[in-house]
């Protein structure tokens, strides 16, 4: 079997991580994709990508493409573009910020609305940090 035939059997999954600034998006994505963690806060400018390849039972290769969205507000204009075509939309919240519970609810509503508009068969995931 040629390389291209093997590659065509790989599944791609687009995972978008959204949430308030400093709620742990980059830390979770880095920990997940690179098994690393940084204590120093460095604000994400624009967007970061992380790739992780996993093999599921049945020898099914899946490439997880994690979109770590920085500086994104709940009403942000770019949100639709980031969310487009995603199979997983997740919003992070941290227990260390007092405003976080209201925002967690708002993020889940916003993602539900965006998912209906821009995604097919999408899973929504809340990530507590
Ligand atoms: N102690 C602790 N610090 C964390 C945790 N997750 C994130 N941080 C710290 O919180 C800050 C913000 O995290 P970051 O992932 O950059 O947030 P983002 O703005 O949502 O991407 C960084 O200084 C991280 O080191 C955690 O689970 N425990
Ligand atoms: Mg970040």
From TrEMBL:
Q: Which Pfam families match?
A: Roc
Subcellular location(s): the record lists: Endosome membrane; Late endosome
One Gene Ontology cellular component term attached to this UniProt record is: late endosome
Q: Where is the signal peptide?
A: none
User: Where is this protein chiefly located?
Assistant: membrane
Q: Which InterPro entries match?
A: P-loop_NTPase
Q: What GO MF annotations does this protein's record show?
A: GTP binding
Q: Which UniProt keywords apply?
A: Endosome, GTP-binding, Lipoprotein, Membrane, Methylation, Nucleotide-binding, Prenylation, Protein transport, Transport
GO annotation, biological process: endosome to lysosome transport; phagosome-lysosome fusion; protein transport
UniProt family annotation: Belongs to the small GTPase superfamily. Rab family.
Q: Which PANTHER family match?
A: RAB FAMILY, RAS-RELATED PROTEIN RAB-7A
- Indicate what this protein is called per its UniProt record: RAB28, member RAS onco family
Native organism: Salmo trutta (Brown trout)
Gene that this polypeptide is encoded by: RAB28
